[in-house]
Specification:
The structure holds two protein chains of two kinds. By secondary structure, chain A is of the alpha+beta class. Chain A has one domain: OB fold (Dihydrolipoamide Acetyltransferase, E2P). Chain A is 18% helix and 44% strand. Chain A has a six-stranded mixed sheet. In chain A, strands 3-6-7-5-4 form a five-stranded mixed sheet. Chain A is globular. The radius of gyration of chain B is 29 Å and the shape is flat. In chain B, 47% of the residues lie in helices and 20% in strands. Chain B has four domains: 144 residues, HPT domain (Four Helix Bundle (Hemerythrin (Met), subunit A), Up-down Bundle); 62 residues; 182 residues, Heat Shock Protein 90 (2-Layer Sandwich); 133 residues, Beta Barrel (OB fold (Dihydrolipoamide Acetyltransferase, E2P)). Chain B contains 21 helices and 18 strands. The longest helix of chain B has 29 residues. Classes of the chains: A alpha+beta, B alpha+beta. Chains A and B meet through strand 4, strand 5, strand 7 and helix 4 of A and strand 17 and strand 18 of B.
Chain lengths: 165, 604
């Protein structure tokens, strides 16, 4: 069914359809490929892990599996904010490992055609590292930043993780 | 040339069975040499090799058949007493068995490499009565290979690299040997030996893998018990669901507390049973490791010109397979050292008024939640003066450092990489790697090493290892409101001290503990915890030991002892200093497990 739908739509737009989970961080909207997202959970007790990069909040127990939690606010050098009842942890599979990312709010799943994705603007003055921006989606009433977390934890980043040792 | 085997299952069965037979074979052959009259043993050996031959001919592994066939012939003659067993025959048979192992590991690796069988087979032939005839018959078979230059002495006795590869730094060495495609022979066999060296080196590395534990054979009864326990667990779960729905529908809420109490008790019982069962399945007798030692000792003793009696106790002691895998190499080094450095030659022994035959005792036993393995020799013992002199000579320590060392610390120098009392490195020892390997592996296992030394009368190395690596007993401590778990296997003692008792020596906080000086580490600083209790003037010191080192960890409070299951922190957080993993507490929160190795490494 899904494929049939995709096909029709893609003919219409002339491009592959992808689904994105959109979430908010500091009033900006971001999108991430739905296939990356394993689950979305509420905030729970996070155990701090010493000697880690500042954006690593700690670890949680996800039904018997211990996974690292990363604060996207800190990762992108945004202002720290209190966690409230809309704060969510998005559990994603990044380079074969489960990780949780704290975001302000998860809003919806949207479908877009690949053609709508524009390359990121050449100068990004926000803290978001250029390399983990896969592109922007410019729709009539909204602007979405498409993230590529695989790239965020590219070789560099992983080295950083292990270099702390 | 890859293996074209239609029935993968058949092949796997063959490999599992053959590997098992070959492991046993080594052991049996050594026993046979000691008691050549044992017909039962002889028959068992014969049967094993016969089984291997049968299976390989069925599967069409021709090279295996050739070797096993000749070996079987020789064994048959021994069995019929047409030949009498001596150490030359044994050497040849052992060599043939090694070749078989190599071939089997080739098959396991999925690649059949053309190997030179002729060399080994030609050695077997003289022991066959119709030797001359056989030789001529066989010649054509190997005709194409006839040109290969009279192959150098049986390459380096296959046993040699088998021991030597793990000798000099196992992980790298094995890796190096495995990538033997590299032009140079692997470092362990660095002597300029002729070409064929590469092959056996690779074979040795593979031979080690041959004994790997990727599949498990479990007693059916244990499996049935497990199934039974799982059934119980399901039952308890159903009761729990029932209880909950009863409670929600408001049916007799008064009895809920009672019922729930009973349920949790039963659940506790079932899960701990289950835990034991699963743990038992992971257990292996330490015999798996011990059984290769008689042969190593035999070869070493011969090479060194010493007479050695190896006595083994407690080989039935069971421990976790993960531990079994790791202790092989350290034990080989310790045994090597006992033979090479510890025991004297027969002449020296006689001069010292001892029996000419030295004794090495290898024993294993359970002690509480640990397994204790000891290697004891009745040789000359370790001379601390010689050790300290060498360490200074090699520039490993300075005179001042030596002056402040107790006798314990001096013995610990043995473990320094690069330390060796040998003037010259030989095949056997002297590169100063062995003891470092011992230390590294024992550390990895969260174990402790103790040395008992009696100059002139021998030395004893005692390894204390945790039984399993998956579930450990741990000491829960609080460091400024954060909970950490310290593996109990590394904890030696805990004490409550006043901060006034701490001293500073050269920027290092220390504590005077009885007759030794203990370096201290504030976990709060190491882990960067926020200080919440600033005005307390007493705290607790947890004294932990890693291999031969001791250190005191300063914590705020001791919370108690708990059995915890170790959970990995995942790839991203795997390299944190001082953190060995994590565990999940009763309330679902994660507590980090302190890694004493990392801490001590950082403090030293």
């Amino acid at each position: 069914m899904e494929t049939a739908l995709t096909k029709v739509k893609s003919e219409e737009y002339g491009g592959e359809l992808i689904q994105l989970v959109s979430f908010n961080l500091e009033k900006e909207e971001y999108g991430i490929n739905v296939l990356m997202v394993r689950e979305i959970i509420r905030m729970l007790n996070i155990t701090r892990v010493p000697n880690t990069p500042h954006y690593v909040e700690g670890v949680i127990n996800l039904r018997g599996k211990v996974i690292p939690i990363i604060s996207l606010r800190r990762k992108f050098d945004l202002m720290e904010a209190e966690y409230d009842k809309r704060t969510r942890i998005m559990v994603m599979e990044v380079v074969g490992e489960l990780m949780g990312f704290i975001v302000d709010e998860v809003s919806e799943v949207i479908r877009i055609s690949e053609k709508e994705i524009q390359p990121p603007p050449p100068v990004v003055s926000s803290g978001i590292e250029q390399e983990c921006m896969a592109g922007v989606i410019n729709q009539a009433d909204r602007l979405l930043v498409l993230l590529d977390l695989e790239r965020m934890f590219s070789a560099d980043e992983r080295r950083l993780f292990s270099n702390v040792a | 040339m890859s293996i074209d085997c239609e029935d993968q299952e058949l092949l796997e069965g063959f490999l599992a069975e053959t590997t098992e037979l070959l492991e046993k074979l080594d052991d049996d052959l050594i026993s046979l040499e000691k008691s050549p009259e044992d017909a039962e043993l002889m028959n068992r050996i014969f049967r094993s090799i016969h089984t291997v031959k049968g299976a390989s001919s069925f599967l069409g592994f021709d090279m295996l058949v050739k070797v096993t066939h000749k070996t079987e012939d020789v064994l048959n003659r021994l069995r019929k007493s047409e030949l009498s067993l001596n150490s030359e025959i044994m050497d040849v048979i052992l060599e043939a068995v090694d070749l078989v192992k190599t071939l089997v590991s080739d098959i396991k690796g999925g690649d059949i490499v053309e190997r030179d069988l002729e060399d080994t087979i030609s050695k077997l032939i003289p022991y066959l009565s119709e030797g001359a005839v056989e030789a001529t018959v066989l010649a054509p078979v190997f005709a194409p290979k006839e040109e290969t230059p009279p192959v150098p002495p049986p390459a380096p006795d296959p046993q040699e690299p088998a021991g030597a590869a793990p000798a000099s730094a196992p992980p790298e060495a094995v890796a190096a040997a495995e990538s033997a495609a590299a032009p140079k022979p692997a470092p362990p066999v660095a002597q300029p030996k002729p070409q064929p060296v590469k092959e056996p080196a690779k074979a040795a590395a593979k031979g080690d893998e041959l004994a790997d534990n990727s599949t498990v054979r479990v007693d059916v009864k244990r499996l049935d018990d497990l199934m039974n326990q799982v059934g119980e667990l399901v039952l308890e779960r159903n009761r729990m669901i029932q209880l909950h729905s009863d409670y929600q529908t408001g049916l007799d809420p008064t009895g809920f507390g009672d019922d729930f109490g009973k349920l949790s008790k039963r659940l506790n019982f079932v899960t701990s049973e289950l835990q034991m069962q699963v743990l038992k399945m992971r257990m292996l007798p330490v015999e798996k490791v011990f059984k290769k030692f008689p042969r190593i000792v035999r070869n070493l003793a011969r090479d060194l010109g010493k007479e050695v009696d190896l006595v083994i106790y407690g080989e039935e002691t069971e421990l976790d397979r993960s531990v079994v895998d790791e202790i092989g190499d350290p034990l080989i080094h310790l045994i090597r050292n006992a033979l090479d450095h510890g025991l004297e030659t027969p002449d020296q022994r006689l001069a010292a008024g001892k029996e000419p035959t030295g004794t090495v005792v290898l024993s294993a036993a359970h002690e509480g939640n640990q397994i204790v393995i000891s290697i004891k020799d009745d040789g000359r013992g370790i001379d601390p003066e010689r050790v300290s002199k060498k360490a200074i000579e090699k520039g490993l320590i300075t005179e001042e450092q030596l002056a402040s060392m107790g006798s314990r610390e001096i013995l610990d120098l043995l473990f320094l990489p690069g330390f060796s009392t040998k003037e010259q490195a030989t095949d056997l020892s002297g590169r100063g790697v062995g003891m470092d390997v011992v230390r590294t592996n024992i550390r990895k296992l969260n174990g402790i090493i103790e040395i008992k030394n009696d100059i002139g009368r021998g030395s004893e190395f005692i390894l204390k290892l945790p039984l399993t690596l998956a579930i450990i007993q741990s000491l829960l401590v609080e460091v400024e409101r954060e909970v950490y778990s310290i593996p109990l296997a590394s904890v030696i003692e805990t004490m409550r001290v006043s901060k006034k008792e701490f001293h500073m020596i050269g920027g290092q906080e220390v504590l005077k503990l009885r007759d030794s000086v203990l370096p201290l580490l504030r976990l709060q600083h190491t882990f960067g915890c926020q200080e919440v209790y600033s005005e307390r003037d007493t705290c607790y010191v947890v004294i932990v030991g890693v291999a031969e080192k001791r250190i005191g960890l300063i914590v705020t409070r001791l919370l108690g002892q708990q059995e915890v299951a170790i959970k990995s922190l995942g790839k991203f957080l795997s390299n944190l200093p001082g953190i060995g993993g994590s565990t999940i507490m009763g309330d679902g929160r994660v507590a980090l497990i302190v890694d004493p190795i990392g801490l001590i490494g950082g403090a030293a």
